[in-house]
Amino acid sequence: MHNPQLDKDGRLKHLLSIEGLPKKILNQILDTAESFVGVAEREVKKVPLLRGKTVCNLFFENSTRTRTTFEIAAKRLSADVISLNVGTSSQSKGETILDTVDNLIAMHADMFVVRHSQSGAAHFIAKHVPDHIHVINAGDGRHSHPTQGLLDVFTIRKYKPELHNLKVAIVGDVLHSRVARSEIHALTTLGVPEVRVIAPKTLLPAHVEKLGVQVFLDMKSGLKDVDVVMMLRLQNERMNGALLPSAQEYFKTYGLTQDKLNLAKPDAIVLHPGPMNRGVEIDSSVADGAQSVILPQVTYGIAIRMAVMAILAGGTGHASHGQTNQDTAS
Ligand code: CP
Known about the structure:
- With 330 residues, the chain is α/β, with parallel strands linked by helices.
- The chain has 2 domains: 23-145 and 300-329, Aspartate/ornithine carbamoyltransferase (Rossmann fold), CATH 3.40.50.1370; 147-296, Aspartate/ornithine carbamoyltransferase (Rossmann fold, 3-Layer(aba) Sandwich).
- It has helices at 23-37, 65-76, 97-106, 121-128, 146-159, 178-189, 219-222, 247-254, 258-261, 284-287, 294-312, 325-329, and strands at residues 54-59, 80-84, 111-116, 134-140, 167-171, 194-198, 214-216, 228-231, 269-271.
- The strands form 2 sheets. The chain has a 5-stranded parallel β-sheet with strand order 7-6-5-8-9. A 4-stranded parallel β-sheet has the order 2-1-3-4, sandwiched between helices.
- It binds phosphoric acid mono(formamide)ester (CP).
- Phosphoric acid mono(formamide)ester binds at residues 63-67, 139, 148, 273-275.
């Protein structure tokens, strides 16, 4: 079946989910991101790959990291960036999403970055826009958050380059997590041999093992000897009714403390997509500790988002192919 994210030649046209994307494309994004990491260290933190292009950030749901890093990424690629303030836009007067999109297309937008609480929102927009316009899903409901999955794998690869030797545990509210779904698809597609999920039964989707993961209901067996621990936020806003006795009880059983982390390999790294609930899914001593790579995840998010936008815009997607004279001189 045709993947709507790819054009007829198999090139990336939209980024809507990791599911169904070939390993070759995931590696293209990761390798391209590698070339963008150094841009932040240049005196002029810019390359002209998206000069003359207009990127519209449409965030219909709150965000700190994703929205800001997409904006920084687009600016580092020299795009013109519009971050629509949905709260003060004509959405509040009843305008439909597609009318908003059509009006921005009439202003010559080239790319939309979309976050929405409804699963499928970015797909809906991608089906509507003309061929020359690209759509990136920045998180839709509990479905998918592809750039988060990619930046998580990129961060893991930075610290643990041999993906084919790793044991990775994803811990917490898998049921409501678009991040977990994207991470699982990215890790399994890229050949990580052992991906575990650890959660109480009430926070696991039915038949989650069909995604190619091993299921653990307790931290003691689930964390044993893993190389990577990926914590998930407890997503109270997506829970209908009580799925847990209390946040304190959850922390006692599934919260990542140093004692529990000591069950993993001594050099294991800890990731969290943010925002964190300290004292609920993770203890501050771990979040701020020596094994945490939570802030590097945020930094690498810029390079991943630059890579995705550069590839979609049809450039070579390599930082060295977009140097300005100033860049070359510095
Ligand atoms: N990880 C993540 O999506 O964070 P934000 O909600 O702050 O964008």
